[in-house]
Amino acid sequence: MIEILKFFLIPIGLIYNAITQLRLKFSKPFKASVPVICVGNINVGGVGKTPFTEYLANYLKEKKLKPAILSRGYKGKLKYVKVNNKIHNYKDVGDEPLMLSYTAPTYVGEDRAKIAQMAIKDGANILIMDDGFQSPTIYKDFSFVVIDGKTGLGNGQVIPSGPLREYLSFGKKRANAFVIVGPDKTGIKKKLTDFPVIEVKVQTKFKPSKYKAYYAFAGIGKPEKFYNTLRETGAKISVAKSFMDHHAYTNKELKEIEDISTFKNIIPITTSKDWVKFPNRYKKVIDFLPITYKIENEKLLAQVIHDLLT
How far apart are CA 22 and CA 286, in angstroms? Predict the structure, then answer.
C-alpha cells in the first residue's frame, strides 16, 4: 500500500525537483574572495555530512589554512553570529553548528553570502558550507555530495515519493566529487564513474564497559547508525530509544533516562550531536560515542584538495 502511494506521489516529486532547479538557475550567487567548499547531499538528512565537514576542517587546518564553517543554524534563534560555544547553546545557534564550533570557527545565518563575508573579515581563507548544496545564495568552488553507503538513494525518487531533495542526474551537474559513508550496499558507486568517489569508514576509539549494558538514545536523522556503531565496539544495548532529528530534550526526558539507567544499572549514552545540547548536570552522567572518519583512499582526497587550491 505504501509503495502504491509513493507511486502516485511521483508527480509532486517532479514539481519539487523542478522548483529546486529553477531557484538554482535564476539566482545570482555571491562569489566569495576565498575558495568555498560545499559538503552537501541530495538525500533528506542522515547521511553523515557533518562529520565529513569536521574531518575536512581538520584536514585543512593541518595544511596551515584557516577554514571557517558556514551553517544555516537550523532551529537556532540567533542569526548572523559567530558561534561561541562558551556562551551560546543549541537553542541559540542549532545543535550541529554548536558541535562544529569546537572544530573550526562557525557562523550561522540563512544568507550564506552574508556569513561568508563575516568569516572572511575575521580572517578565514577558505570556507566550508555544512549543507547548502541546493542553496543558490553563494557560489561553490567545489561541492562534495555525501551519500550513506547502506541506504544509497533509496528508490531514487524525490520527496514526498522518495528520500531525495533532487534527482541524481541533476545533482551530478553541480557536484565535483561524491563521498560514500560506510560500505556501498546499494552499488551507488557504479553510477558515479565520472566522478572522484571518496570512500569513508566510520570508526571510534570508544571502549565499552565489560560489566554494564547501555541505554542508547539519539535524536539524529538515522539513529540506527548510532546503535550499529555502538554495537560494533562490543557494547551491549539494553535499551534503545529514538527521537526526532534535532530533538530538543527536556529536563523531564533526561531525568527519566537517568532514572531508568540507575534502576537497571546500565550506562546512558548518546551521540556527540545530542550530548552538546545537555545541561552540564546531565553531561556528567550521560556518556557519548565519539566517532571519526577514516578515508579509505586518502591520496584521492589529497589530490582533489590540491587541485582546488592550485
Answer: 46
Instruction: Please calculate the CA angle 72-77-78 and round it to the nearest 5 degrees.
Output: 70
DSSP letter (8 states) at residue 28: -
CB atoms within 10 A of CB 1: 5
Residue type, 88: H
Residue whose C-alpha is closest to residue 173's, from 148, 203, 195: 195
Backbone angles phi, psi at 276, to 5 degrees: -65, -15
Write out pLDDT tens, residues 211-223. Answer: 999 999 999 988 9
DSSP 247-310: ----HHHHHHHHHHHHHHT-EEEEEHHHHTTS-HHHHTT-EEE--EEEETTHHHHHHHHHHHH-
With contact defined as beta carbons under 8 Å apart, do 35 and 126 qualify? yes
Q: Name the pTM for this structure.
A: 0.91
Q: Is the pLDDT of residue 2 over 70?
A: no
CA distance 55 to 127: 14
Q: How many residues does the chain have?
A: 310
Specify whether the CB–CB gap between 178 and 142 falls below 8 A.
Answer: no
Mean pLDDT confidence for 96-118: 96
Give me the torsion for CA of 295, 35, 40, 26, rounded to 10°: -160
What is the model's pLDDT at position 26?
67
- Rounded to the nearest 5°, which phi and psi values hold at 105? -50, 130
129 contacts: CB under 8 Å, gap ≥ 6: 36, 37, 38, 39, 40, 69, 70, 71, 112, 135, 138, 140
C-alpha triplet 145, 30, 144: angle, nearest 5°: 10
- Residue 13 — very low, low, confident or very high, per pLDDT cuts 50/70/90? low
Query: Per the structure block, which three cell numbers stand in for 65?
Result: 589554512
